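Today's session is about reading a structure prediction critically. Students often jump straight to the picture, but the first step is always the sequence itself: look for stretches that repeat, for charged clusters, for runs of hydrophobic residues. Only then move on to the predicted structure, which in these notes is written as discrete structure tokens rather than atom positions. Here is the chain we will use throughout the hour.
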Amino acid sequence: MATKAGADLCGEVLLTLARLRLATPRQLKALLLPHQQDTDHVRRALRNLLAESPALVGRTHRAQQSYWYCTPAGLAEAAASGELASPVGRTTGKRIAASKTGLREHGLALVETVIAFHQAEVADHADWRVEVAHPTPAGSLVPDGVVLLANGSSAFVEIDRTMSYAGLLAKLERYDAYRNAPASGRGNAARPPRNHWQETYAGPSLERPFPLLLFVFAPAKRRAAAETREAAFHDRARPIWRITVATTTLHRLTHDGADRPVWRIVGRGEDRRVLTAAPSPR
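Below is the predicted structure for this chain, in token form.
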């Protein structure tokens, strides 16, 4: 496969960092140049973006690894391209990249999830939005990611590394509350009122159900293994039949593939299934 032109690759690198907040050169190569043997082309694109005035990207070094993110100028450039699905705001990935509290590892686990979905053709990497606020009666719900799947439906994605089980269960309640959140704006007199999620995700004829809620359990130091935390979550979680909740571990997702039977449905036993076989909410 011919290598992408330098300017094209720079543009794609910038857009990807704007969407995902941060990434390593290896992760960017996996998304943009999967058939290349090394990261040389991606690193050259990153250096070119860094050399712009003002710089469009920044980087942080930790343990012989570099973590890259958009600068405010880079976010503005990406937004001006018109290629982003939604506004990215002014939040750069600098704080996440430099974090010593696990934020960086959390962000990188989300990118690994994006890569797994992209490689399995479950969802294109360009069809992800990160940390988009959704209104609920109890305040904003901010999923780690929202993805448009290849089958046309959407899914909320939550990465768990260190959250308490009580915190995870509280998130389930917040998603349940979001189902009833009214749409923002004044509505349309020609049709009955719709909820925010219907306006955003159901399509014009309300043919799509409430988006899937996907939990990916990722490893973390001084925490129980991801498989253990996933099992404990299922033991504690009360099925909310209006929402389909599916879980997996980051290892299963990246090792077996997002299109394989790696997903376990809350309230449906221990069997794992492919995502397309997940039951629709009642």
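Discussion point for the tutorial: The two ends are 46 Å apart (CA to CA).
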